[in-house]
Amino acid sequence: MTHFIKQWQNYIVYQIYPLSFMDSNGDGVGDIQGIILKLDYLKNLGIDVIWLSPIYMSPMDDNGYDISDYYQINPMFGTISDFKQLLEKVHRLGMKLIMDLVVNHTSDEHTWFLESKKSKENPYRDYYIWRDQPSEITSVFSGSAWEYDSSTNQYYFHLFSKKQPDLNWDNPLLRLEIYRMINFWLDFGIDGFRLDVIDLIGKDVDRKLLGDGPHLDERLKELYQNCFEGRDVFTVGEMPTLSIPRAAEVTSLQTGTLNMIFQFGHVSLDEVPGRGKWELKQLDLLELKEYFNKMQIGLYEEGWNSLFLANHDQPRAVSRYGNIAFRKESATMLATMLYSMQGTPYVYQGEEIGMTGVKFESLDEYRDIETLNMAKEYLEKGWSKEKTMESIYAKSRDNSRTPMQWSNQPNSGFTTGRPWLNVNPNYHEINVENDLSDTFSIYRYFQKLFQLRKKYSVFADGKFHLLFEDSRDLFIFTRSNDSIEILVINSFSPEPVSVNLDAYSKYQFLLSNNKELNLNASTVLPPYYAGIYISKETQYQL
Ligand code: NOJ
Predict the structure, then answer these.
(1) Which one-letter DSSP state was computed for residue 527?
(2) 410 alpha carbon to ligand 1 midpoint, in Å?
(3) Catalytic residue among 61, 196, 271, 461, which?
(4) Is 27 a catalytic residue?
């Protein structure tokens, strides 16, 4: 149990996808100087930690998740002195900065791979995974995970694009190189890492054991001992394949190797089970509640959660779990639901103003390698253009990668040039400037919610208890510690819903996306209502 909440457990994290955040020099691509311009904006929102998606040298086949030099900054984002300036300003504002650590694979343009390819005898050959014959393992980005290389007559393994060869973590020399690089950035002054698909580094390719593989724990332990132990480092591992009990082990406060991990139980609920991400299924609130309930209970005694709905790989939260006909209501309701649970809140850029997914008419407007590969594969196997586009509209990663909507200016104030990916045409209505000038905006609501989280420790240490488990409209729960209980009410219905809240009639109002309600035997919740009520009278006023 987390009786003693550590400082990092109260942090609020904001993810920046640098390509799409803010362009300071008009080349159509976001950059480090652009981020510097917006730091006060993040501080005012209540952010403690900024997570930067990769800014290292990269041919950008997978937008920077294909690194060709871990020690260099990609010039499209700026220079190492820009990065230093960014880090200094982040620290001056009392925030922290974590980088993305992509060490399951590199770019095929990394010198290690260029060497590795040269011959079977090359000292770097074993930095990657080479076999005489391919197996039937497929790549996450479509097609075989093996690519033939004629010069040495072998195949190399790549779980993502063929320009992202997987590193061979069985090789101790490779592991040392990785630790050296991690320590270089920690010595540089950064505050931690988000570890990309780190559940894959324990894999046994020949036995086809990939996620949460047989060597995962020993690898994480070695990584921890060589890089994180004894340092004040914030770590969050991307681990889609871990079960909830395994998540509790890896993030145990006593014996864990990472502060927290991203689990993905909720992001596959809108797909037909076992058919990959593109075969769509209607989201069922009962399943969503079941997942969060298990996760909240499963990591209460041991471990720590990360709370997220969206990121650069997932569609926009309000379009996926909410209702854009009730955009403001449902965006604030989703935030109330998510950020009132136990764990560390993550905000993906634009989520704080309710940015939505996008529907580009033509495939030519899409940039994401996963989307483009999928379209080719599914059109070839007979899907109609309409069906393919419908899936892309629902699930493409470009939904969340469209440029940040700062204002009503051309290209949403993101760039004075031509953006690398088109801006969502709804920026005239949905933009930061509008939200900042409105006292009841989504941004203002996020601000208040984060203030509330920091004010009451029950948000961090309270036990989660799901109410009205069978309701298909409502997601209501309490969080309670020894002294206080909060009631968190969320309606997922576009219609008013009546509910018996008589047991909470004495609870005091704390926050709502609508108004204070009288809690009684037949309280009527307005569409997408969210409200937080507390068991004890409080002097605290927002
Ligand atoms: C997960 C990252 O979030 C995603 O963007 C990337 O394509 C894959 N890992 C491969 O690095």
Answers:
(1) T
(2) 30
(3) 196
(4) no
CATH of the domain at 483: 2.60.40.1180
Q: What is the pLDDT of residue 4?
A: 77
Domain membership flag for residue 3: no
CB atoms under 10 Å from CB of 372, counted, come to 18
Which of 52, 55, 102, 162 should be mutated for ligand 1, with most atoms under 8 A from CB?
A: 102
SS3 content of the chain, % helix, strand, coil (to 5): 35, 20, 50
Distance between CA atoms of 292 and 239, rounded to whole angstroms? 16
Sign of CA dihedral 362, 364, 368, 369: positive
Kindly report the pTM of this predicted structure.
0.97
User: What tokens does 264 get?
Assistant: 């993905």
For 368-424, the pLDDT digits (tens) are 999 999 999 999 999 999 999 999 999 999 999 999 999 999 999 999 999 999 999
Using the mean position of ligand 1's atoms as its centre, give its distance from the Cα of residue 133 in Å: 26
Q: What are phi and psi of 383, to 5 degrees?
A: -65, 145
Domain count, the chain: 3
How is residue 341 written in tokens?
Answer: 């649970």
Q: Where are the alpha helices (DSSP H) in 284-368?
A: 285-298, 317-320, 327-339
Output the pLDDT for position 1: 47
Count CB-CB contacts under 10 A for residue 473: 16
* Domain, as residue range, for 81: 8-104+172-443
Whether 22 is in the pocket of ligand 1, judged by its Cβ within 6 Å, is: no
What 139-142 contacts at long range (C-beta under 8 Å, 24+ apart), as own/partner pairs, is: 140/370, 141/62, 141/369, 141/370, 141/373, 142/370, 142/373, 142/374, 142/376, 142/377
